[in-house]
């Protein structure tokens, strides 16, 4: 009886590598390793970025790859990748043969960052003044109470977080939360500088008063007044640059292009 020939189950089509399936690409051991490395890089980046922006890592302070790698339990590769991203952000400086250091705050970059942020947040506050529901206005006032509590407790980090939530909430009320996300991308250096101003006597109380005026304008459905007060509030950040830089000269590099006197005299954008 003649036997019927059948192809072997493990036979491969011509030109197909052993162990592969036609039309499919089988995963390799490298893929999960690459994914894990990307996750580690992102985690290290977020952690270092948060520490630098919050001034827990001071300008000029060295960042030792080995120490960071050990603290996260990873190799140096994701640490280097995270540091390269931070260098692109202008938050670290990498010197071959010398090391990596937290970048100093570039004073000449602050005015442009404030102008961009002001443009974004003035747009948000105008829409918020038109669209805010009573419950949303109540949420803004509750946030101001939280800021007052943080001030009374001397909790500068907590106050900064509540302040950030205040501005984020305005964008949400406006219906354009992406405006706040965009503002965060340009204000990293401003945040570092601002952290140095918070301990100044009366600074937080002044910020709270400005926040209160903005909420009152939103509650009054007055977009023009809300925009005017937001412009003043954000523009005031630059007024103390010379004093802050003088008190912390090693933390800064460069000089402000336009002095605070000129900034005050400039008319606010319409």
TrEMBL record:
Superkingdom assignment: Bacteria
What's one GO MF term for it? DNA binding
Q: Does the keyword Ribonucleoprotein apply?
A: no
Region of interest called Disordered, as start-end residue ranges on this chain:
1-33
User: What SUPFAM superfamilies does the entry give?
Assistant: GntR ligand-binding domain-like, Winged helix' DNA-binding domain
In its keyword annotation, does this UniProt entry include Transcription regulation? yes
Annotated keywords: DNA-binding, Plasmid, Transcription, Transcription regulation
Q: Which residues form a coiled coil?
A: none
User: Residues in domain HTH gntR-type?
Assistant: 38-105
Protein name, entry field = GntR family transcriptional regulator
